[in-house]
Design brief:
Blueprint: H1 4-7, E1 13-17, H2 21-33, E2 38-42, H3 48-55, E3 59-64, H4 69-82, E4 86-90, H5 95-103, E5 108-111, H6 118-122, H7 124-129, E6 135-137, E7 148-153, E8 160-165, H8 172-175, H9 177-180, E9 190-193, H10 199-208, E10 212-215, E11 219-223, H11 228-238, E12 244-247, H12 250-263, H13 266-275, E13 277-280, H14 283-291, E14 298-299, H15 305-313, E15 321-325, H16 333-340, E16 344-348, E17 351-355, H17 359-370, E18 376-379, H18 382-394, H19 398-407, E19 410-412, H20 415-423, H21 438-449
Parallel strand pairs: 1-2, 1-3, 3-4, 4-5, 5-6, 9-10, 9-18, 12-13, 12-15, 13-14, 15-16, 18-19
Antiparallel strand pairs: 7-8, 11-17
């Protein structure tokens, strides 16, 4: 190991993110055996970024037993915001999860390495300095590489590295999901990306497979224009005036918690949520709940309003006080259903959509669609569909848009968005089967083209 005193650099500093104290101790011991003594352990996700900013580590190590896609996306945000190499140690994995880890911005993915000593053999200092990223797992050869492309920056120790990793794994079943699913057919394809919140992530995924991403974010998300109804709803929540709370979207819950934080009552709101029956339409509200130490009690059998209705039909809701955190465009159906079932319904909308691109830019997209210049358009929300329709209608181009959309392959991120596309009279060419996220959506593109 380099003598940092001689080089004028501080000793390598490592932050470990691990909620399990036993696993954290194993990681700390492994680092000490490798001669790395400046180690800080973060055992909770609460205020994680603030803790990382205070620690200012050179390398971040994350220990997770069985990482889900949601966890990987959260860790990607950590990697992106702190601009540090991130190594992940997991107990079990598979080819698809390894690919997802790389796309999530993880610099090193170590499988079954904590107890076998892989941490010391790998060398965390090399992670901060080396120009290549490796996959280390039980039974893998030294230097064996993962598919994907990752870039990381390191300002303190002077390293800035980029690895363009190709499919070199020998087993075709796990080697390169991109090629297995026909994603190599995206090479040179022009794909319209109307996404706003995760525009950069979505674009990187597409460009990694050789596609040309045509950026046109159609909507942005803002707090409700009039905060007074949300304030009043929040007060009723804190006063324990709800028996059940229905959570449509993670965005809605995040906005509500943000308002509670600004009002100085976030702890009260979390305590109130812990007491009620929490019903979620899909996985994203559940992810936000996990971030505040809570868990969803009931999740819809299908992430749609109809799925919520079927699920709640099996609950005792007569005479119950049901708070509903709505989403823009879905303000009527569920409250009407709950009222008909005898519930006392208290709905609220904590956010709304606003136009993100000027009308002229959207008109340019419509013209390009009409001219056949777009190979695929990928919708990730119903608001994007409505925005495109609205601009076309106001400028007398609805016939051109409808004709273009009937011949342009359309992908939808999930059943709610697919339903909006179908209501517009456009065919849905592809949709993820059961996991409604960006990665499965990109995989669905391969099915359209193949």
């Amino acid at each position: 190991m380099t003598n940092d005193t001689q080089t004028g650099q501080r000793p390598l500093r490592v932050a470990i993110i691990e909620e399990n104290s036993i696993r954290a101790a194993i990681l700390v011991d492994g680092l000490r055996e490798a001669g790395i003594l400046d180690v800080e352990v973060i055992e909770t996700m609460t205020n994680m970024l603030r803790r990382l900013s205070t620690i200012d580590p050179d390398v971040i190590i994350i220990g997770i037993e069985n990482p889900s896609r949601d966890v990987l996306e959260q860790m990607f945000q950590v990697s992106k915001l702190v601009s540090r190499p991130v190594a992940m140690f997991v107990d079990r994995s598979d080819g698809a999860m390894i690919q997802a880890a790389v796309e999530a911005g993880v610099s090193a993915y170590v499988v079954d390495g904590m107890l076998s000593g892989s941490l010391g053999r790998y060398g965390v200092e090399r992670l901060a300095e080396r120009p290549a990223l490796e996959r280390i797992s039980r039974g893998s050869r030294p230097g064996q590489r993962m598919p994907g492309s990752v870039e990381a920056r390191h300002h303190r120790r002077g390293a800035r590295f980029r690895a363009d990793l190709s499919c070199e794994m020998p087993d075709a079943r796990t080697a390169c999901p991109a090629r297995r699913d026909g994603l190599n057919m995206l090479e040179g394809r022009r794909i319209t990306v109307p996404e706003s919140r995760e525009l950069d992530l979505f674009t990187r995924m597409l460009e990694r497979h050789g596609a040309i991403a045509v950026r046109c974010p159609l909507v942005s998300i803002h707090d409700a224009e009039d905060p007074r109804p949300v304030d009043a709803w929040l007060e009723r929540l804190v006063e324990d005036r709800h028996d059940i709370v229905v959570l449509y979207t993670g965005e809605g819950l995040s906005r509500l918690l943000g308002l509670a934080r600004r009002r100085g009552i976030e702890a009260d709101a979390i305590a109130a949520l812990s007491k009620v029956l929490k019903v979620a339409r899909g996985p994203k509200p559940a992810k936000v709940l996990r971030g505040i130490g809570l868990a969803v009690d009931v999740i819809a059998e299908e992430p749609t309003t109809a799925g919520l209705m079927r699920t709640m039909s099996g609950l005792s809701i007569a005479d119950k006080r049901v708070g509903v955190l709505l989403y823009p465009g879905g303000e009527e159906a569920l409250p009407q259903f709950l009222e008909a079932a005898g519930a006392q319904v208290d709905p609220v909308l904590s956010y709304g959509y606003a136009s993100d691109e000027e009308d002229e830019r959207v008109l340019g997209l419509i013209r390009e669609l009409a001219s056949g210049g777009i190979d695929i358009i990928a919708f990730t929300s119903t608001a994007q569909v409505r925005r495109l329709q609205d601009v076309a209608r106001r400028f007398g181009m609805d016939a051109d848009l409808n004709a273009a959309m009937r011949r342009t392959p359309i992908a939808a991120v999930g059943p709610v968005t697919a339903e909006a596309v179908a209501k517009a009279g456009w065919p849905v060419g592809a949709m993820p089967h059961d996991s409604y996220h960006l990665k499965p959506l990109v995989t669905a593109f391969g099915r359209i083209l193949s």
